[in-house]
Request: fold
Amino acid sequence: MITPDWVRMMAAYNAEMNRRLYAAAARLPEEARTRDRGAFWGSIEGTLNHLLWGDRVWMARFAGWPKPAQRLPESAAMAPDFPALRAARIEADEGIATWAATLDADWLAGDMRWLSGAARREVSAPRALLVTHLFNHQTHHRGQVHAMLTAAGEATGDTDLFLVVGY
Reply:
C-alpha cells in the first residue's frame, strides 16, 4: 500500500539521486553531456531534461504546478543549458519534497481524471498508482543516465534505495 511516508521516502531518494547524477554530469565536458548515446532521449542532458519535464507534468496534475510549455517530443530540449537545467532540477526536487510533506492518506486513496497527451484521451486512475508511476518514471530514466555516466567514466556512488535513504 502506498502511504504518505512512502511518498516522502521516495521524494528524498529522488532528490538525493538527482544530486548525485547532476554532480557526476557536471564533471563531464558539455560535449560528453550532450552527445547522443542512443538512449530514449539521446544524451545525458536530453534524458535529464525529459525527466524534469515528466516531473513537472505530473506535479502540474498533483499540485497545480505550471505545466511545461514543451510537448513530449520537445522534452529533451526543455532547458537552454546545463546550469539552468540543474537549477530547475533543484527547485523541482524541493517542490516535490514540500508537496510530499503535505500528503495524507485520503488524497492518495482518491482517483484522478485528466486529459492525457500521451494516450490522446481522458484517463482516470488511482492517485496512489499515479504517484508510484511518477517515482518509477524517475528511476527508469535515472537508470539510463547512470549507465551513460558510467560509460563516460563517472561514478555516482550507491544507487540502492535502502543504502541511499539510510535504513
User: Anything to note?
Assistant: The two ends are 19 Å apart (CA to CA). The first strand starts at residue 111 and ends at 116. The chain has a mean pLDDT of 95.
